[in-house]
Design a protein that fits this description.
- This protein is an all-alpha fold.
- Helix 2 (41-48) packs across helix 3.
- The protein has helices at residues 2-30, 41-48, 50-58, 65-69, 76-90.
- The chain has a domain at 1-32.
- It has 5 helices and no strands.
- Helix content is 73%, strand content 0%.
Amino acid sequence: MRVIEGMQRVRIGLTGLAFVFVLVLLAAIFTSPSEEEPITANSLERQLGNASAANVAAGDEPKEPLAELGVAPGNADSNSQANRTAKAATR
C-alpha cells in the first residue's frame, strides 16, 4: 500500500512540475522583448540625468560600485593591503 501512495505522490509532483514549466514557457512566448526600446547612449542620458550622464560619457566609473550601493564593504584594496602588512609585521 505504501508503494502505491509513494508513486502517487511522485506522479502528482511531476504533474505539478510539468504544469509550472508549461506556464513559464507560455509566459515567455507571449512577452516579447522586441516591443522594448533598445538601449542607446541617448536613452542612458535621459535615465541618468545630465550630471550623471556626463560622468558616464567621460569614463568616470565609481571605484567601488557595490560599496556605493551598500551591498559590500568599501575599500577592499586598502583592507587587503592592511592584512598583508599586519601578517608581515607578525612574522
